[in-house]
Amino acid sequence: MIAVTRLDGSELIINDDLILQVERTPDTVLTLSTGLRLLVKEPPEEIMRRVVDFRRRVFAGLQIIPAQS
Fold first, then answer.
1. Prediction pTM value
2. How far is 49 from 1, CA to CA, in rounded Å?
3. Spans of all domains in the chain
C-alpha cells in the first residue's frame, strides 16, 4: 500500500498491486486494474519509488524455508 495525494490535497492509500499504468499528462494519472483512474500530485518517478520501497519492506520480512526431503 502506498500513500498518494489527490489534486485537492487529500491523501489516499492505494494497493500498489492494482496499478496498471502511470502516466504524466501533465498531472500524473494512475490507472488501476479496477478501471479507476486517479489524478495525483506526485510525479511518476515518485510513485515508482514508493512502490519499490514498499515492496522492499514487504519482501525483507519474508523468510525462505527450505523444502524438506
1. 0.83
2. 13
3. 2-60
For 20-41, what is each residue's pLDDT tens digit?
999 999 999 999 999 999 999 9
Please, what's the b/e burial string for 40-62 (b: 16 or more CB within 10 A of its CB; e: otherwise)? bebeeebbeebbeeeeeeeeeee
| Secondary structure in 3-state letters for the chain | CEEEEECCCCEEEECHHHEEEEEECCCEEEEECCCCEEEECCCHHHHHHHHHHHHHHHHHCCCCCCCCC
Sign of the Cα torsion 25, 54, 13, 33 reads positive
Taking CA atoms, 47 is separated from 59, 68, 69, in Å, by 18, 40, 43
